[in-house]
Structure to design on (192 residues):
């Protein structure tokens, strides 16, 4: 199954992606995690990405295209994948479509986790404490939400126009949200 997970920062995309990966046995491709790993290794791109993400800004599309293509060139993607954090704008959506068309592995489902801003700010504050993420201060969170509204929200329409989008209510427990996603994917309702 080839799935794109969409949703604002703090919507629980990463958590749901991890659960889906466990269930489906496909790779979890998180561009945020790839960038954090590059920053940890101290690469030039990793350090540049960290400076941008600490301000809540996006990393340039050209850099992201390189990261995406490199990851999608790995053999494990032929069995499917959960893509989390990409595409973040319409240019990236077009890039993704082009790369996956070339590989003959088009997106099959785009799932948008719908949640309101106030709930997000509370969730992100909790996650910042738990994971020690430096891009989770309140100012950064507000900027990330603004960037999401302006640049990433149109991506939902991009997939809607292609008949691939399903919205999932993002409130409730992790397990409740996961059950909603499972039912969209016709994976039954057994507990995770
Ligand atoms: P995430 O873990 O997906 O919330 O990503 C953390 C940060 O990495 C984001 O706030 C961006 O600065 C950067 N990032 C991750 N994915 C992308 C992307 N597809 N395009 C641009 N920047 C990204």
């Amino acid at each position: 199954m080839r799935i794109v997970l969409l949703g604002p920062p703090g919507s629980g995309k990463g958590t749901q992606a991890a659960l889906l990966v466990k269930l489906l046995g496909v790779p979890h491709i998180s561009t945020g995690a790839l960038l954090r790993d590059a920053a940890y290794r101290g690469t030039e791109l990793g350090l540049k990405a960290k400076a941008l993400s600490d301000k809540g800004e996006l990393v340039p599309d050209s850099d992201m295209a390189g990261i995406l293509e490199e990851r999608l060139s790995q053999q494990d993607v032929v069995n499917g994948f959960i893509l989390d954090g990409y595409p973040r704008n319409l240019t990236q959506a077009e890039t993704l479509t082009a790369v996956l068309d070339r590989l003959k592995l088009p997106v099959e489902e785009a799932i948008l986790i719908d949640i309101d801003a106030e709930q997000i700010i509370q969730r992100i504050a909790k996650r910042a404490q738990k994971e020690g993420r430096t891009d989770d201060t309140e100012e950064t969170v507000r900027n990330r939400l603004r960037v999401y509204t302006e640049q990433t929200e149109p991506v939902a329409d991009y997939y809607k126009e292609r008949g691939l989008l399903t919205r999932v209510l993002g409130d409730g427990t992790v397990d409740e949200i996961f059950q909603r996603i499972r039912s969209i994917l016709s994976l039954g309702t057994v507990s995770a």
